[in-house]
Amino acid sequence: MAKGFNDRIFATVDVGTTKICVLVARQLADKEIEVIGCGKAPSDGLSKGVVVDVAKTIHSIRSAIKEAELMAGLPIESVTVGISGAHISSLNSQGVVPIKRGDIRENDVAAVLAAARAIPIPDGQQILHVLPQYYVIDGRDRVTDPRGMHGIRLEVQAHIIMGAIASVQNLVKCCESAGVAVHDIVLEQLASALCVLSEDEQKLGVAVLDIGGGTSDFAIYQHGTIRHTKVLPVAGNHFTNDIAVGLCTTLKDAERVKKEHGAAASPLEKDEFIEVEMVHGEQKQVVRSSDLVRIIEPRAQELLAIVHEEILSKRLESFITTGIVLTGGGSLLKGIQPLAEKMLDLPVRIGHLKVPFSIPDSLHSPIYATGYGLLMHTIQKQKENEMSDMSGPLLKKVLNRMKAWMVDFF
Ligand SMILES: Nc1ncnc2c1ncn2[C@@H]1O[C@H](COP(=O)(O)OP(=O)(O)OP(=O)(O)O)[C@@H](O)[C@H]1O
Ligand SMILES: [Mg+2]
Prior knowledge:
Elements: E1 8-15, E2 19-27, E3 33-42, E4 46-47, E5 50-51, H1 54-72, E6 78-83, E7 89-98, H2 106-117, E8 125-137, E9 142-143, E10 153-164, H3 165-177, E11 181-187, H4 188-196, H5 199-204, E12 206-211, E13 216-222, E14 225-232, H6 236-247, H7 251-261, E15 273-277, E16 284-288, H8 289-313, E17 324-327, H9 336-344, E18 348-350, H10 369-390, H11 393-406
Parallel strand pairs: 1-6, 6-11, 12-17, 17-18
Antiparallel strand pairs: 1-2, 2-3, 4-5, 7-10, 8-9, 8-10, 12-13, 13-14, 15-16
Helix pairs in contact: 1-3, 2-11, 4-10, 6-7, 6-8, 8-9
Bound molecules: adenosine-5'-triphosphate and magnesium ion.
The site of adenosine-5'-triphosphate has 24 residues, from helix 6 and helix 7.
């Protein structure tokens, strides 16, 4: 597929623990967006969301990129990449600046965000995102966009997300060695949230839980901005490992029976007999589906108990007014939604992809939520850049400085 003169190309890489997914989209001159390429490869160089084997990760990223390039019919030069893992931490911070000229301008907003960013950063960590939650002018009401308002003192409450420098660099290195430049890194749950949450949910208060293979990524939104983020260490692969150990079967068969017969809670409508390989792979054995569920249930309860504990210990209940949206491959586990409702005592729904472009039928699964979210983030950012390009050289300079503060991972 040839690139038209005015077309823009966007590419993203979701480096997951179980799969690498590369998506390529094209924005036509009339602003319409279409997904023109997708490449997938099994990922076996990651553990719990972080790169543990550089060579294997490069190989997987390269295969996924090649497949996406072939389908799109054009080379991929630079990408937006998702990041996750236990090294990610977040905190809320405040910043205050005086306003000299009376009305608040872009550079005052940039200055107050820089003030919020001035926090002690633990050794080996770097700031990935500084996300404004709300602004306060002269100690009065909270506002979401203070530009153009009058005041003498501007405060901001911001959510700061940090990650380990080594993990970030390993991810960048793997992508670069696979032949693509990294122009942005985005926390995975921010990306997933973008494409499964409605605007109203984000305004009223909602949580998203992306249950992946290595990590479950949690985020809370209210008043249209991020309130809380946390990467949890239990996800789909832990279920598979438990099944392999519990049924004495291979990891491959454990994964298969989990998807085909697994459920997060008992009792089952029908207790079936299932044939699985024995762990040495040379013989088969027959197990009951109720035995399978007896293995999965405590792990699902453990994951949801961690989420519950996070909500209670950080006093987050008041932010989650509309409930929790589950996404990621783990959300496909049968029975996870009612179990989550029971354990978290909140409305829970499975997130369907809400994206402003058409998606091929084969790519409708929640396992692609992060990939599509990365695409939406990249397109949104491009739009902001274009708006700043149109706003004159001075404003452009200020916005660019602001952006450098907001996403500062190198
Ligand atoms: N139908 C299903 N039932 C139960 N689990 C499923 C189903 N389909 C996929 N999964 C599980 O979802 C997980 C993969 O999800 P996903 O693709 O979102 O993870 P990932 O992005 O590779 O990993 P991570 O985000 O943790 O780095 C695997 O553990 C897989 O077994
Ligand atoms: Mg993922």
